Amino acid sequence: MDKKLDVQKPLNVESNISRRDAIKLMGLSPVAAAVIANSATATEAQAATDVQGKIVILGGGAGGIMAMAHLRSKISNPDITIVAPNEIHLYQPGQVFIATGVYEPEDILMSNNDFIPDDVKWIKDEAKTIDADNNKITLRSGEELSYDYLVVATGIEYHYEWIKGLTKEDIGTNGLASVYLSDLEKGTATGGSTGWTWLKAMTQDVKDGKNPRAIFTQPSTPIKCGGAPQKMLYLCADYMKEKKLNTEMIFATSSGKLFPLANVDTELHKTQDGYKGMSTKFKHNLTAVDVKNKKATFHHAYNHTDEWGTESREEDVILDYDYLHIVPPMSPVDAVKKSSLVWKEGKAKGWLEVDKFTLQHRRYENVFGIGDVCGIPMGKTGGSARHHAPIMAKNLISAMGKKTLKEKFDGYTVCPLKPRYGEIIMAEFGYDGPMPSIPFWTDISVPRASWWIFDVYMLKPMYKHLMMRGLM
Ligand SMILES: Cc1cc2nc3c(=O)[nH]c(=O)nc-3n(C[C@H](O)[C@H](O)[C@H](O)COP(=O)(O)OP(=O)(O)OC[C@H]3O[C@@H](n4cnc5c(N)ncnc54)[C@H](O)[C@@H]3O)c2cc1C
Q1: Which residues of 309-340 are buried (b: 16+ CB within 10 A; e: fewer)?
Q2: pTM more than 0.85
Q3: Up-side HSE of residue 463: CA atoms within 13 Å toward CB?
Q4: Dist CA 299 CA 318 (whole Å)
Q5: pLDDT > 90: what percent of the chain?
Q6: 236 among known catalytic residues
Q7: Ligand 1 centre from 156 Cα, in Å?
């Protein structure tokens, strides 16, 4: 786990793996092949459209790169600029596998050099401000950048500092871990593996006859990959169980449910019942951590019922812990938050104000959104961004051609919950309910070994060779 981080050597984008090779690669897994066969968004070569205008994409993560790839393949002479500070491109779903000993840190490192071709102008900087009334971006360098069309793909920012007494630097010390903090952000190859070193330390404590208490949190803000807090909980518990060890594990979540869909929620309750020593505290939102004395404070809102009736109550609950897995509160980045592009009120306040179907900004017709930054009801997942990409690109091209926007996002999101090593509940759903990729696996709450194989072995090459190239 201490190996040095190393970005893979840049490949020539044009000579990369062919579509045929990629399909062969996926042929290794019948499940993956079926996913492709059923993918509504798999793109065949498309007739290039002759529309004019300078497109600026902000962000070079999953959404920004997919937006670029789809737009580039659909416009005959595209004028695309991407503002992306990062050469290293993290395959973020793999962070859970690093934290639970399945992947090594370097397994999730990709390079934007592989994805951004020479005919796209790449500015390795960040947007500091966005002036949507004048179609202008100011970069951190001070340089100004104008656009005709803007795609916002700046993702999410973590706020460990919103938890009183905590800083990002505390993660990895004093029994604290967070699967969200990657090795890269921590600046060390062992940092983001805080989860893995943490789990091994906890295991050792139990072997030594101690009975440590581990608490896993989930905040009240929207988070990316809403399933990640529970993925960590169950895989850590299963790791212990497999070693015939047992300890107290508390899931302290600000939510009132384990999952929004009833059948998945029921399955997760069953999962919890299978782990001795596991319990959940609903409506518990982590507000403060006393790092030195290992005490966590939660805001608990609840309904109290007695012979006089029911009333809403609030209290602070302080729990001692030995190990604390923190999922930080999250928000869009400052450049977006402080711009005129965000919702001013409502549940999505502060997030990008796009239409939930077209992904076009509701007030600025030349602005579109993709990925986690979007203030829409469903999903902050790479799976959602994959479904956004072709829809957003086609609608943006329609806007450039002064045509009606026809494409509609159906709310698709995916949550590969891991109740134990070797099995995944592939919870795929959208605005109108379940949306299984494999049509005959209609019950999305069933844990399946095939999905584990798919997630561990197939999804990463598909992400790299197909999704990031706009091929699915
Ligand atoms: C632990 C973990 C597990 C996950 N598991 C899954 C999973 O199993 N399945 C799944 O589908 N998804 C999963 N996800 C979520 C998935 O990775 C994200 O939803 C996806 O990366 C969203 O893409 P994005 O482009 O919106 O954001 P990102 O990929 O995060 O990219 C945002 C980019 O914007 C850049 N940026 C930020 N600010 C600026 C600025 N001011 N100017 C320019 N650029 C800027 C950043 O550098 C970053 O590269 C997981 C995420 C994590 C952290």
Answers
A1: eeeeeeeeeebebbbbbbbbbbbbbebbbebe
A2: yes
A3: 26
A4: 9
A5: 83
A6: no
A7: 7
